[in-house]
Amino acid sequence: MLKKVSPERLREIQELPDGARVRVREIAALEDVSMSTAWRRVRDGDWPVVRFGGTTRVLLGAYRRKQQVADGD
Q1: What's the predicted TM-score (pTM) here?
Q2: 6 found inside a domain
């Protein structure tokens, strides 16, 4: 069963510095996509990630920059 990401955590993520690394499921919740879609975006290189200690984390600053380009800002 997929754990929900709390609204408080989603607000916290918005305030994190660009150097932060966040869980894939948290970015999936931000974008309101399924975990299948989230992992496909990781696999396709749409979400920049690092893998360490058996976990995969999205690089928040790189993710934000990609979002700005995609949004045309």
Answers
A1: 0.85
A2: no
